[in-house]
């Protein structure tokens, strides 16, 4: 059967490197198949006709004339001078006139003279090389200019394959152009063999179109053409770019059953797309399976994955990459990645990962930063390793150490850790050659002050700690340490220990402050030594220290409630009342508001506690709604109302007093 002879103008829609959106008004259907399909509603944005030869068809000239009429209204096309082709543009659109150039874009260069003098077979080889190696649409147009326009060669499968293959260009390629090229081949009886169809799969891997890909696969199947390994990769790549991850994973599993090795670029493409959708667990499974198959991973790839996982605070993927790749390959990630991994480890109580990251930082000569130490301390405390948290605080800057000690102090108070446990650990570190800062001793003394409320015998331990303090830290105690020791003695009501600490302060020449006198005054009042309390109060006022209003009120209350009141107690009570009631009306009003606020807070706390105790009884949550109220619930309700009324009466009595 003879084929229809094709003219050069029949490929003009596809041989211009500049897209013209107004060159065609028709709609393009998908390729013929066994099932009916709806035509596409998107008009074809084919490559504009730019090869204005003297033997151009009438339809092409009419199309160009219509574009010239509409270009001013659309604003998308402008006339470019013919200097891009080296010839002047004639009035009637003469030879080599370049028309239909988009605003702000220069047309591609014409074929160089060195290419025009080459034999036809060499130009054909050059076209094939450009299409398959570089895959640049603009570069592929130059040999096509020479073959089809200058030499008038009839277009065949090689030319179609080259232009389809060149549409894998990520910048200028298009799936719509691939669809129209395949339709053009079928229309003009150009054989659709394996080469253009496989080139179409490659182009659709870059510019995905699910319907067209299925049509191409159906045509390959109808021709009994099996998919090669590259074809499988191109199909999966198109599915990944369409975010059809389930289908892509199913195809990958099928490739595994066919013993097709997945290439690194496809695996990386799948992982990066999954990371965009925060599928970190699936990424970990894929990477673990990849490593188990014996495949390696590039440093740039796993570094990017580690960066994304640590930024998303995903512990599973972060720890997997660190132990399976970073540690085994002895790699050194960036500092910012290490900091994020430290934070992830601290949040998930992974002390082993914290120690590994810290070792990497030290090996790189990078000193951990402020937040790194905080993360390490929090991580060890959340893991229950108090000694490891103490070890982190030794040898770091003072301002960082004080912030870390806040977490340690809160942990010890919550878990009621005995201060001697921390003190003995500090002595062990001293024996190992570490320098113990004075802030560590301050931490232990502060814990002794808080623990004296529940165990008065802690005061004796505090005295022993004070005697060992100089040997451990190599410095005399500071004023803050003495104030904490006196506060411990005040809480434990141990006057002998307080007298010992006062003598030590005088011996070392440590000047007392208002806080020091307050501790001594309250200790004397609680132990019934009102004469010493009165003398300390006079000494406090003579030194110019101001006594807080709440402190005066507490002193008045303690003096009035004491059973061993004497003349010194009355004198001190009268002196404090005179100082307290000499306040201005504004100060009294502020003090009254503060008291009312604290009373209301305590009242709400007592009420909530009463309700919670009532709810803890058996059967509270077993109540089922009904028309009648069970007797046991009525009794519980009356008990709850009685407890609430007693709380209110108590608050009213306190307010009246």
Automatic annotation (TrEMBL):
Record's compositionally biased regions (Basic and acidic residues): 61-73, 646-657
Family annotation (InterPro entries): PPR-containing_protein (IPR050667), TPR-like_helical_dom_sf (IPR011990)
Segments of skewed composition (Basic residues): 92-105, 589-608
Stretches the record annotates as Disordered: 53-117, 584-657
Bias (Acidic residues): 615-624
Protein's UniProt name: Pentatricopeptide repeat protein
Protein's organism: Aspergillus mulundensis
């Amino acid at each position: 059967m003879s084929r229809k002879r094709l003219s050069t103008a029949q490929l003009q829609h596809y041989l211009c490197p500049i897209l013209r959106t107004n060159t065609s008004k028709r709609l393009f259907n998908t390729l013929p198949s066994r099932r009916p399909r709806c035509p596409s509603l998107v008009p074809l944005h084919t490559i504009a006709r730019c090869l204005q030869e003297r033997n151009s068809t009438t339809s092409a000239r009419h199309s160009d004339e219509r574009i010239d009429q509409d270009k001013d209204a659309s604003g998308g096309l402008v006339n470019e001078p013919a200097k891009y082709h080296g010839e002047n543009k004639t009035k009637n659109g003469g030879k080599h006139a370049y028309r239909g150039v988009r605003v702000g874009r220069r047309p591609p260069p014409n074929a160089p003279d060195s290419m025009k003098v080459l034999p036809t077979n060499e130009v054909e080889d050059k076209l094939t090389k450009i299409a398959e190696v570089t895959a640049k649409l603009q570069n592929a147009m130059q040999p096509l200019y020479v073959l089809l326009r200058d030499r008038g060669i009839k277009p065949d499968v090689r030319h179609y394959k080259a232009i389809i293959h060149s549409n894998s260009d990520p910048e200028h390629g298009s799936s719509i152009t691939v669809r129209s090229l395949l339709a053009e081949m079928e229309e003009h009886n150009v054989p659709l063999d394996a080469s253009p169809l496989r080139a179409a799969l490659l182009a659709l891997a870059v510019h995905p179109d699910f319907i067209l890909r299925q049509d191409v696969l159906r045509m390959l199947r109808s021709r009994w053409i099996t998919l090669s390994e590259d074809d499988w990769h191109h199909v999966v790549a198109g599915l990944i770019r369409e975010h059809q991850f389930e289908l892509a994973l199913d195809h990958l599993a099928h490739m595994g059953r066919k013993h097709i090795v997945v290439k690194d670029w496809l695996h990386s493409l799948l992982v990066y797309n999954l990371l965009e959708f925060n599928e970190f667990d699936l990424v970990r499974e894929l990477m673990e399976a990849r490593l188990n198959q014996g495949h390696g991973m590039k440093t740039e790839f796993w570094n990017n994955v580690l960066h994304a996982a640590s930024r998303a605070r995903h512990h599973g993927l972060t720890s997997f990459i660190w132990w399976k790749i970073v540690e085994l390959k002895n790699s050194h990630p960036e500092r910012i990645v290490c900091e994020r991994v430290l934070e992830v480890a601290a949040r998930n109580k992974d002390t082993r990962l914290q120690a590994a990251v810290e070792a990497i930082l030290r090996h790189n000569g990078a000193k951990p930063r402020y937040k790194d130490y905080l993360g390490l301390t929090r991580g060890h405390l959340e893991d229950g390793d108090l000694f490891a948290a103490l070890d982190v605080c030794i040898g770091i800057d003072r301002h960082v150490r004080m912030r870390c000690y806040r977490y340690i102090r809160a942990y010890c108070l919550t878990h009621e850790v005995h201060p001697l446990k921390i003190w003995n650990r500090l002595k062990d570190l001293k024996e190992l050659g570490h320098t113990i800062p004075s802030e560590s001793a301050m931490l232990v003394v502060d814990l002794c002050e808080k623990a004296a409320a529940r165990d008065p015998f802690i005061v004796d331990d505090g005295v022993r700690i004070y005697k060992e303090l100089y040997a451990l830290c190599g410095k005399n105690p500071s004023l803050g340490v003495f104030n904490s020791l006196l506060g411990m003695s005040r809480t434990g009501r141990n006057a002998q220990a307080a007298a010992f600490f006062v003598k030590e302060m005088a011996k070392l020449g440590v000047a007392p402050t208002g806080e020091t006198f307050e501790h001594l005054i309250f200790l004397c009042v609680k132990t019934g030594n009102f004469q010493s309390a009165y003398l300390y109060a006079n000494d406090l006022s003579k030194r110019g220290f101001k006594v807080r209003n709440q402190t005066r009120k507490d002193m008045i209350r303690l003096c009035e409630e004491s059973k061993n009141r004497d003349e010194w107690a009355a004198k001190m009570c009268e002196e404090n009342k005179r100082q307290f009631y000499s306040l201005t009306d504004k100060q009294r009003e502020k003090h009254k508001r503060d008291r009312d606020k604290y009373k209301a807070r305590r009242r709400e706390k007592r009420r909530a506690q009463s309700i919670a105790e009532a709810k803890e009884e058996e059967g509270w949550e077993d109540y089922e709604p009904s028309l009648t109220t069970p007797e046991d619930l009525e009794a519980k309700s009356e008990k709850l109302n009685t407890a609430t009324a007693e709380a209110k009466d108590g608050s009213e009595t306190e307010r009246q007093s």
